[in-house]
């Protein structure tokens, strides 16, 4: 009916060779209802059977986003110095500091002002960058509170709509979508 692309999902520890090839429907939003039902072998009037539900739950796991570990403070600070312009300014500060070090005469102290100012600007830039990154992470965490906890699905074991936890919805479930 339509191609069966195999996507490779690597599992296990880094360096291990464990992989799982999954049959995934690409561009599901462009398919007809009949194509989607056929792909997941679902009966439109009754939904998934108990056996299909069990298989899909084992194959795909829970319907939830994986928890991401936040970056440490030092990782965030180091990220701020990965930008090319920041590295150029850091190099300019080093060169300016080296030239000031070897400068002789009355104005030797004032020669250190330029590299000091450049370093202060880079430090201020890093502080602002880390602050913005933390705010973005906090905003994403706050959005997770708006995830629905329950969903309504049609399944074969009960002939009407069932309320299930959103994490228990699996690919192939017929989900009732309603506006408020």
UniProtKB/TrEMBL annotation:
<keyword id="KW-0472">Membrane</keyword>
<feature type="transmembrane region" description="Helical">
    <location>
        <begin position="108"/>
        <end position="131"/>
    </location>
</feature>
<dbReference type="InterPro" id="IPR023298">
    <property type="entry name" value="ATPase_P-typ_TM_dom_sf"/>
</dbReference>
<dbReference type="GO" id="GO:0005524">
    <property type="term" value="F:ATP binding"/>
</dbReference>
<dbReference type="InterPro" id="IPR004014">
    <property type="entry name" value="ATPase_P-typ_cation-transptr_N"/>
</dbReference>
<protein>
    <recommendedName>
        <fullName>Cation-transporting P-type ATPase N-terminal domain-containing protein</fullName>
    </recommendedName>
</protein>
<dbReference type="Pfam" id="PF00690">
    <property type="entry name" value="Cation_ATPase_N"/>
</dbReference>
<dbReference type="GO" id="GO:0012505">
    <property type="term" value="C:endomembrane system"/>
</dbReference>
<keyword id="KW-0547">Nucleotide-binding</keyword>
<dbReference type="GO" id="GO:0005388">
    <property type="term" value="F:P-type calcium transporter activity"/>
</dbReference>
<feature type="transmembrane region" description="Helical">
    <location>
        <begin position="84"/>
        <end position="102"/>
    </location>
</feature>
<keyword id="KW-0067">ATP-binding</keyword>
<keyword id="KW-0812">Transmembrane</keyword>
<keyword id="KW-0597">Phosphoprotein</keyword>
<keyword id="KW-0460">Magnesium</keyword>
<feature type="domain" description="Cation-transporting P-type ATPase N-terminal">
    <location>
        <begin position="27"/>
        <end position="101"/>
    </location>
</feature>
<keyword id="KW-1278">Translocase</keyword>
<keyword id="KW-1133">Transmembrane helix</keyword>
């Amino acid at each position: 009916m339509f191609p069966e692309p195999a996507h490779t999902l690597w599992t296990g520890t880094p360096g291990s060779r464990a992989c799982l090839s999954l049959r995934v429907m690409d561009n599901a939003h462009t398919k007809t209802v009949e194509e989607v039902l056929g792909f997941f072998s679902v009966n439109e009037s009754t939904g998934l059977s108990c056996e299909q539900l069990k298989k899909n739950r084992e194959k795909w796991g829970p319907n939830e986003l994986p928890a991401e570990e936040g970056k440490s403070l030092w990782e965030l600070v180091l990220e701020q110095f990965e930008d090319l312009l920041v590295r150029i300014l850091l190099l300019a500060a080093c060169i300016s500091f080296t030239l000031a070090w070897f400068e002789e005469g009355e104005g030797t102290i004032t020669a250190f002002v330029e590299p000091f100012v450049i370093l202060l600007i880079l430090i201020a830039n890093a502080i602002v960058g880390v602050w913005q990154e933390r705010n973005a992470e906090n905003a994403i965490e706050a959005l997770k509170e708006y995830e629905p906890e329950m969903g309504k699905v049609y399944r074969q074991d009960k002939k009407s709509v069932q309320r299930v936890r959103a994490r228990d919805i699996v690919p192939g479930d017929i989900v009732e979508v309603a506006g408020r």
